[in-house]
C-alpha cells in the first residue's frame, strides 16, 4: 500500500480517533497530521509492519499523551457545569453526549485514551497495551479507575438521578 492510498483510506478515521481522545476538532486534525507526517518519514518501515494502521494509531496516541505532558497543554470545559440546567426534549441525546465529553475531559490523558480505545475503537486489552506500550493488567486497572471516577460524577442532565455517563460506557 502506498502512503497516498493509506491517507485516503484511513485519514478521516485518524481524525476521529484524535477527536475522541482530545475532545477538540482542531487538535484532532493536528494529531492526525503529526501522525501521518511521522509515518511518511518512515513509510517503508510502516508499510512493512504487520498492521500499518496499528503503527500509525500508536504514533497518534503517543503524540497525544506527549502533548498532555507539556506545560502549555490545558484542557478544560469552556462553560461552567450547571446541574440545574434544563434541556429541551429534542436535545436530550445532544445533552447526554455533551455530559459525556465533559466527564471525559476531567480524566487524565491516559485514562481517557484507554476508555476511548476500549469503547470507541472497540480494541481489546492486549491491543490497547500494545498501543500504549504497557501491560494488559495496567490497561484493566486504568480503565477500572477511570470508570470509577466517572461513576462518582453527578449526572448533569435534567433526567433525574441516573448517571448517563455510566450507562453509555458500561
Automatic annotation (TrEMBL):
Gene Ontology biological process terms, A to Z: DNA-templated transcription initiation
Record keywords, A-Z: DNA-binding, Sigma factor, Transcription, Transcription regulation
Domain spans labelled RNA polymerase sigma-70 region: 11-72
InterPro entries xrefs: RNA_pol_sigma-70-like, RNA_pol_sigma-70_dom, RNA_pol_sigma-E_actinobac, RNA_pol_sigma70_r2, RNA_pol_sigma70_r4_t2, RNA_pol_sigma_r2, RNA_pol_sigma_r3/r4-like, WH-like_DNA-bd_sf
Record domain RNA polymerase sigma factor 70 region 4 type: where: 98-150
Pfam families found in the cross-reference section: Sigma70_r2 (PF04542), Sigma70_r4_2 (PF08281)
Transmembrane region(s): none
Family the entry assigns: Belongs to the sigma-70 factor family. ECF subfamily.
Annotated protein name in UniProt: SigE family RNA polymerase sigma factor
Amino acid at each position: 500500500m502506498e502512503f497516498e492510498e493509506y491517507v485516503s483510506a484511513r485519514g478521516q478515521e485518524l481524525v476521529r480517533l484524535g477527536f475522541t481522545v482530545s475532545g477538540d476538532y482542531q487538535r484532532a486534525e493536528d494529531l492526525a497530521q503529526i501522525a501521518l507526517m511521522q509515518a511518511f518519514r518512515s513509510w517503508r518501515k510502516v508499510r512493512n509492519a504487520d498492521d500499518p494502521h496499528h503503527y500509525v494509531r500508536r504514533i497518534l496516541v503517543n503524540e497525544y499523551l506527549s502533548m498532555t505532558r507539556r506545560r502549555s497543554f490545558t484542557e478544560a470545559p469552556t462553560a461552567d457545569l450547571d446541574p440545574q440546567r434544563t434541556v429541551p426534549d429534542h436535545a436530550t441525546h445532544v445533552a447526554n453526549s455533551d455530559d459525556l465529553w465533559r466527564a471525559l475531559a476531567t480524566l487524565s490523558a491516559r485514562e481517557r485514551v484507554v476508555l476511548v480505545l476500549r469503547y470507541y475503537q472497540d480494541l481489546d486489552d492486549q491491543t490497547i497495551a500494545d498501543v500504549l506500550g504497557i501491560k494488559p493488567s495496567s490497561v484493566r486497572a486504568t480503565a477500572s479507575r477511570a470508570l470509577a471516577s466517572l461513576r462518582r460524577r453527578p449526572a448533569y442532565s435534567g433526567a433525574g438521578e441516573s448517571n448517563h455517563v455510566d450507562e453509555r460506557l458500561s
